[in-house]
Amino acid sequence: MSEREWQALTKSEEAFMVNSYEIDILAGVWGDLDDADQSRPVNELAGILLTLIDRGWIEVRRVAPWTSPSGEKGFQPGDLVPRGQLPAVLEDAANWEYPDDGNWIGAVTLVETETGKKITRRSPEEMAG
């Protein structure tokens, strides 16, 4: 299933899926988009992303602080952005930029769902075939 689903993705959809697989902030998607997609307006890209969210493949969360068991500071996906807020959040161009101060806390991040993992990872049957 995943190979066929993956092949059916557009370049923009593929970029968002890669971004969610990497649990990257939204600004990171620019590096995965091809040149044609990079020139699209943010609201158009937001519409593409919303389609993937509505398929249940990607969640939008806010970056939260995290401390490892050894005490090192880092980041993790935090609170889920409610579906009703997503159009406004995703159409805000500021959420598509890296934070000026380098602080990612609160930044919009894409997270692959369990259903999304079935798209980005090949099944045992596909790997054997």
Molecular shape: globular
Ranges with pLDDT <50 over ≥5 residues? none
Largest sheet descriptor: 3 strands, antiparallel
Instruction: Write the element-wise H/E pattern from the N-terminal end onward.
Output: HHHHEEHEHH
Structural class: alpha+beta
* Mean of all residue-level pLDDT scores: 88
> In which order are the strands of the major sheet placed?
2-1-3
Overall helicity: 40-55%
How widely separated are the two ends?
12 Å
Oligomer status: single chain
What fraction of the residues are assigned to beta strands by DSSP? 15-25%
Radius of gyration: 15 Å
- Count all strands and give the number: 3
Helix count?
A: 7
Please summarize what this structure is:
This protein is of the alpha+beta class and 129 residues long.
Write the layout of secondary structure elements.
Blueprint: H1 2-8, H2 11-21, H3 35-38, H4 42-54, E1 58-67, E2 73-80, H5 86-90, E3 108-112, H6 114-120, H7 124-128
Antiparallel strand pairs: 1-2, 1-3
Helix pairs in contact: 2-4
Describe the structure.
With 129 residues, the chain is α+β, with helices and mostly antiparallel strands. It has a three-stranded antiparallel β-sheet with strand order 2-1-3. The mean pLDDT is 88. It starts with a helix and ends with a helix. It has seven helices and three strands, in the order H-H-H-H-E-E-H-E-H-H. Helix content is 40%, strand content 18%. Strand 1 and strand 2 form a beta hairpin.
Give me some keywords for this one.
129 residues; alpha+beta; 3-stranded antiparallel beta sheet; 3 strands
